[in-house]
Each structure stands twice: as C-alpha cells, then as structure tokens.
Amino acid sequence: MRGVRTRSSVARRAAVTLAGAVLAGSAVLAGCVASPGSSSGPADGERRASASPSASAAGSQSPSASVSPSPTAPVWNPRPASVAAVGDSITRGFDACRVLEDCPEASWATGSDARVNSLALRLLGAPALTSHSWNLARSGSRMAELPGQMARAARHKPGLVTVMVGANDACRPSVDLMTPVEDFRAHFEAAMAGLRKASPTSQVYVTSVPDLWRLWSTGRDHPVGRQVWKLGVCASMLADAEDLGPASERRRSAVRDRVVAYNDVLRDVCAADERCRYDGGAVFDYRFGVGQLSPWDWFHPSRDGQERLAEIAYRHVTAERPPA
Prior knowledge:
- The chain is an alpha/beta fold.
- Helices cover 48% and strands 6% of the residues.
- The protein has helices spanning 2-33, 44-51, 56-59, 89-92, 119-124, 126-132, 146-154, 167-170, 181-198, 212-219, 223-229, 235-238, 246-271, 282-285, 303-317; strands spanning 83-87, 133-135, 160-164, 203-206, 276-278.
- The radius of gyration is 33 Å and the shape is globular.
- The N and C termini lie far apart (90 Å).
C-alpha cells in the first residue's frame, strides 16, 4: 500500500505540473493572437515583464515590442522661416509709391513698409526681413518667365515661395496676343518641377489672377484713369473704356474668360503638389475699390491695395487647411 500511495502522490504532482504548463501556454497564445489594440490580453511589455523581470528594460526596446507610431508631421508649415517672391509688377509694388516705378518696400509679399505689413514682415518680423526674404519678381513678366524666376528662388532654399503672375498674359495689346492656356499650363508646370528638383521642401503659395474686368468696372468712370489707360495700360481689357458696344463687351468678356481659365490652371497644377497652396480664388474675388488702386494708373494696387493682398496671403498661409 505504501508503494501505491507513493505512486498516487507522484501522479497527482505530475498532473498539477502539466495543468500549470497548459494554462501558461494558453496565456501566451492568447497574447500573440490578440490585436495590438485589443484589451483581451496583457500588453507586450507586460508579458515580457511577467516572464522575466530582469528583462523588462531591454524588452521595451526590442524590435518585436509594440510601439505606438509617432504622429506624422504636417506637410504644410504655417510659419516658414524665409520667403522668396516671384511674379510681376504687382509683387514689385509698381506705382504703389512713385509714378511709373517699382516700389518693392510696399510689396504685399516681401515689403518692409509697416503700413503694408507684408506677408514676410508678418511671418519673419522686421529684424529677419533683409536676410530671409527675396523679391525676385519683375514688372511686365508673364508666365513664360516663371521657370527662370523660380530657379533663382530655389537657390535660396526658401521656406515659402509666393507666386503672383498671369495678369500680363491676359493684358496684351489685343485679345489675339493673350497667352494660350496650354502654354500657360506648360510654363507653370515647368516652374513647379524645377523648384521641386532644386528645393524639394519649399512651400508655394499661389494667388489667383485678379479680375481685370472688375478693375475696368471700378475705374472706367474716373477721368484720370481713363486718360492713363489710353496710354496702353492692359489694352485688351481697358482700351476704349467708355465704349459699351457689343464688340468691346465681347473683347472684355474674352479677357475675363481667359483669366478664369488661367486661374483653373493655377488651381489644378498647385493641387497636384502637396506643398503648394492656392488661394481658392480669393484675389480674383476681392473687390478692389478706389482706395486700393494706384492714383497714378488706376490699375495696380496702391499701398492700401498691397496691404489687402498681404492680409489675404497671411490668412491662407497660416491657415490650418487650404481653402475648400
């Protein structure tokens, strides 16, 4: 009987040991099968700690440990550290301060005039303006020049490039000389591609082309404006400003339609680049009043008009999301 009791005791101990092993194995399998976000089993680090207390520190850095993915950094930086401006006479501040002269200090993009409070001045502050902003625009330039201007901007590796161009493509001596839409697109695509190759992380803010028809409508009743326009200012739109006949109306409509088509190009090409932000037509929609137009040509923005452009730009550049 003693041998039987001994054998029974051994059997019971073996059974207990086997049951414990089965339970432990089940717990491990449950932890492996559970999804990473499941609460049905202990976390990976906790499992390692229960298995080997001395390995808890090392286990937390193991490649197999569950690690929460770090949040993806946003592509758009609302506070770029430098600004380069490309484009035409509007960005050069033409006729904003002096007759028939550039006035870059009054530029909406990079100007130093506190009354305008340019985009760069708002973003960078006055001390950094000279060393961290560059105005590379040229009065009279059209979209065909943008690839070259963008290449010069890329050499500075700017945090942000502002683009305002297209008015001169529509403002031609005649409607027939306006830049074809397909050429406008090709040059803009080339400019963006060149920037991406030379300065991949530079952001781009693109303004819509102003509504030239609305400028005509605002200034056509002003005697000074009409006299200046006779000198050839944007003749495709502003010539014969008082003529409301069918031919003149068709001409103005053709120019406006072309501007709308240009803006569609700016929107579409910009949308294909995750670091590009179009203004959603904000400049095109803005109603420039008498006070926002230059008193010398009734076409280019005055200081007040430049300030309005800076406000629009700052609002869009610093917004959490681009306009719908």
